[in-house]
Design goal:
By secondary structure, the protein is an alpha/beta fold. Helix content is 59%, strand content 15%. Helix 1 packs across helix 8 and helix 3 runs parallel beside helix 5. It is elongated. Bound molecules: zinc ion. The site of zinc ion has 6 residues, from helix 3.
Length: 416
């Protein structure tokens, strides 16, 4: 092969299979940078594929570092436009590799009936947004391993292809193809190996959580422990990057080592904050599992009769009590829920004429829960029904109301 293949750290690309809550936490850590625009570029396995605005920055960076560093070194004597063209193609193929890695995770997740809302390519690589957590440790392990497996197989294929081309057609002008194949092979092998690092939420960390989960039978505790290793690896990567960077300045070694160091610091910080967010979330879930609905619910409950006009409801309930919504109740039966939003959707001129019954959102029996449920169960109930409050019933009577804001307030108080 033309020269020796250089290990390029810039190809240490993390990917995440993440639930919606974690995505939100991460974007909060990065000052809402995940809210930048993103574009749908297609669909695979029925999953929408999106490109995030930050992806263009890293695409340009990879193209630039290949066109000005890697390629001129491996294939001397070509023109600059050739290097940039090849760099651009290689960068595109690199992101295609990341996409295939994500599709590996997604394929197994879909087999376990876990919906994948979308796959996003962004500055750190790729992210598959899972609709819910895996049902069993075994499912979690297989979903986590599928991505690196795809990358390692692709990597072996590309490296094998490049070596065979080099051996069979030596000196026939296919050197460019050999170099690209070799680069892509290495990138894929590295993508597979890097993500096997056992720090949650990297794939290796997910496999670790699956093991801890199977052992302790406690999902949240396993998440907390696996996230701790993620925090540790995040710090270790950041320090390694800093040592590389400082070392290259003192020795006056190649710039690429300083760049690699910078990238490692960047990745380390990302892993650190993602792991920290997961750990915080797990701690919160654990504490909410030990708190009962009875401890958090508000009571007595203010109920609205269904035949009242909107004008009266606004004057006598919304203004007087200051709540965002009320259960609508008739003869001890909960019929629905009426919120500020429901009332606002009706023009004020109609308020004296329209009745609560006409505009309330009707509810199903799962809107009423017993007081001995845990707050965590209540939150899952709210998420499933798309409600932000639930009625608490005991022995056929309404005894309280649990709302998202009351839970947030409870957490806030107990953090202090
Ligand atoms: Zn992965």
């Amino acid at each position: 092969m033309a020269g020796e293949l250089r290990w390029c750290m810039v190809a240490s690309i993390p990917d995440l299979t993440s639930d919606a809550e974690l995505t939100l936490e991460i974007s909060r850590c990065y000052g809402g940078s995940m809210t930048l625009p993103n574009w749908k570029i297609g669909r695979a396995l029925g999953i929408p594929i999106h490109i995030h605005a930050s992806w263009f920055a890293v695409f340009f960076f990879v193209t630039w570092s290949l066109a000005t560093g890697y390629l001129p070194e491996m294939l001397p004597g070509l023109s600059a436009p050739r290097y940039w063209g090849m760099g651009g193609i290689a960068a595109l193929l690199l992101f295609l590799s990341v996409l295939l890695h994500e599709l590996g995770h997604s394929y197994v997740a879909l087999r376990y009936q876990i919906p994948i809302r979308q796959i996003t390519l962004f500055i750190f690589g790729g992210m598959a947004h899972m609709g819910k957590e895996p049902p069993t440790p075994r499912a979690e392990f297989l979903i986590a391993m599928a991505g690196p497996l795809v990358s390692l197989i692709l990597g072996a294929g590309c490296l094998g292809g490049a070596m065979a081309t080099d051996a069979l057609f030596a000196g026939s002008g296919l050197q460019g193809l050999v170099v690209l194949g070799g680069l892509l092979g290495m990138v894929n092998v590295q993508l597979g190996l890097f993500n096997l690092i056992p720090g949650f939420p990297l794939d290796g960390g997910r496999a670790l959580r699956a093991g801890l989960w199977a052992w302790s039978k406690n999902f949240d505790r396993a998440t907390g422990q696996a996230a701790l290793t993620g925090i540790g690896f995040g710090v270790a990567l950041g320090l390694t990057g800093a040592v590389l960077m400082v070392g290259s300045w003192f020795d006056g070694r190649e710039d690429s080592i300083a760049t690699d160091g910078g990238w490692l610091i960047f990745i380390g910080a990302f892993l650190f904050s993602a792991a920290l967010a997961s750990r915080r979330q797990a701690t919160m879930r654990t504490s909410l599992s030990s708190v009962t609905v009875r401890q958090v619910m508000v009571h007595p409950v203010v109920l609205v009769p269904p035949d009242m006009t909107l004008q009266d409801v606004v004057d006598q309930y919304f203004v007087a009590h200051g709540f965002g919504g009320f259960p609508v109740c008739e003869e001890g039966q909960v019929l629905g829920v009426v919120t500020v939003g429901d009332v606002q959707a009706v023009s004020t001129a109609l308020w004296p004429w329209r009745r609560v019954r006409d505009i309330m959102s009707p509810v199903s029996p799962s809107f009423c829960i017993p007081p001995d449920w845990s707050v965590m169960q209540a939150m899952e109930g709210m998420a499933q029904g798309g409600w932000d409050r639930l009625v608490v019933m005991e022995h056929g009577a309404i005894v309280g109301l649990i709302t998202r804001s009351a839970i947030a307030q409870f957490l806030e108080l107990h953090r202090a």
